[in-house]
From TrEMBL:
InterPro entries registered for this protein in UniProt: DUF3267 (IPR021683)
A Pfam family annotated for this UniProt entry: DUF3267
Organism encoding this protein: Planococcus rifietoensis
Keywords for this protein: Membrane, Transmembrane, Transmembrane helix
Highest taxon above the source species: Bacteria
The name this protein goes by in its record: Zincin peptidase
Amino acid sequence: MHCWKTINVKKQYGSDRLFFISALIGAGVFTSYYMLLAIMYADPLSDQNFLLFMIGMLAIYPIHKLLHLLPLLGSRKCLKISLRKQLKLCPTISLYIKEPVRKSRFMLALVAPFAVINTTIIALSIIWPAYSHYFAILLAYHSALSVTDLIYIRNLARSPRHALIEETDTGFEILVPQPIA
């Protein structure tokens, strides 16, 4: 095996730039989705269940991380999970891959939270249009949270089909089998 490419989005873009891109995407998703829902539904909005909305806001991050983990459960020997506090306040969950994983499985792990959570939020906003403003905020927040995953997916889509992905200190390495001479 040899390393075809190393991807480190935080190093490539920088934390400030990633935050700015995420904020722009979140604002764009909120604006466009809220306007779409306002055009589709004329129901008056309700401010009831604000507590459920706050619970949803707090639950999105751990659910997002759990959905990253589910496609990789078959290879749990190669997973390492760590909890850290950032700024002594916000807990962060980190998943590390200690052994190479097939590209298809890794891409499924990256896209799973985006697909499942955003589909659920969109379905709930159709079921309960009176809370569409809450769902628009949740969709925007989760879309902004998923920006780094989507950038990794875009980079991995261009890699060889039968590659393996391994996480190192320098980022994700795309490994390809070395041809036998």
